[in-house]
Amino acid sequence: MPFLDRIQRWADDRPHDTAVVVAGRRLSWAELRDSATAAVSGAKAVTVLAESNSVDFAVRFAAAVAGERQCAVLDPTWPAQLQQEIRQRLDGSARPGDVAPDDALADGPPEATFLVGLTSGTTSVPKAFTRSRQSWRKSFDASIEFFGLRQDDVTLAPGPLAASLNLYALAECLYAGSEFQTLEMFDVGDVHAAITHDGVTRLVLVPTMLRLLSERGLTGCVDAAGVRTIICAGSKLDARTLEAARRWAPNATIFEYYGASELSFVSGAGLPAGELDAGGTGIGRAFPGVEVRILDDGGTRLPDGEAGNICVRSGMVSNGYLWGDDGEALRSFDGWFTVGDQGYLAEDGLHILGRRADMILTSGKNVYPHEVELALASVPGVAAAIAAGMPDDLRGQRVVAGVVPAHGGISANQLKAGLENILARDKRPLQYFALSELPTTDRGKVSRNMLLEWISSHDQRVRPLGH
Asked: What Rg, from alpha-carbon coordinates, does the chain have?
């Protein structure tokens, strides 16, 4: 396990059906099996994949996890020095068992580690955690049931396979016997062409991609009526993105979910065709096989409606860290695991507020930027929003917000009016700034600290909003 036995099965049952397509290059199930089998003899005990998208990536990934081998997938755009340091750490930290002497394309023991995942941390070197074959097998079963993946689906995940969202989508399709497609790199026109000509029925992507595809698809009259499933991860869908996606892909169930690399899937919700329920902090109900509780810092269970640590118990949780664990990254309360995300349970399921480290303490009140950002994103005229806590002598911190206007500009008064009935008064920003772009790190993550730096340095990309 987790998926090599399935590749063998699909290759025997449906040898000529398509398994993987990358930028127009196709591999059948038999071709994938045969190519991966031929590559097993050259696979190391620990393989490091740092490659751009290709069918060869899928072949090497399958070969790299045969027997008791392990695979670490790195972003090929990371600096060479960082990649080298990670390779050296893996050589010293990962201790796999003996590899299969017959070099067969066969799964190793369920409890054995097969994947070394890398996630961003406070240091320059990403934290490294491990996953067992059994944890991914259980994740496949849960996600296939929750998202309704079928063998006749054609899944397109247009992002980099080095990202966990897309790597998992590839492996899930190999497990389910369902065709998987991706591109060499994300391109709106190429995605539209795949949807038009390749019978794509399922999209796996992040909200920013969905907005681009939907808005440009509507402008260019690209028919997405055949898409029946859209799975979004990374952040909540804002009202503008959801409305555009609804018009562009009118027959699709749109899923958003909460999870973490170390926890796997936690909770999610699917909006059937026609529904337009965006905004808010709700993120649906627990995945199959997952239990969710809200615990305080001492491990005591909190009542519904009270915020605390989102804690999970399931067979999908990772094994822990090879390095980078500061004792807070993945905590356990008697078998209930948390990555520090804060939230609460209500009648409609789990609500997520954000990371504790991001919390703003203003005049004795706890404010989560995530909640402010979701509210701002629902205001007409806002394309994107970010909130942060600015040092304040009187309040400790004050809430400030930056918005990227959708079109024609926007005023502070319009923003204040838009928040009037959707955000509590003590959570509303005291200052608003117009941004030419969202502040992001060199790895593409939105940075609240960078917003504060822009404001303090009077950066040209930010300007105060008047009334």
From this structure: 23
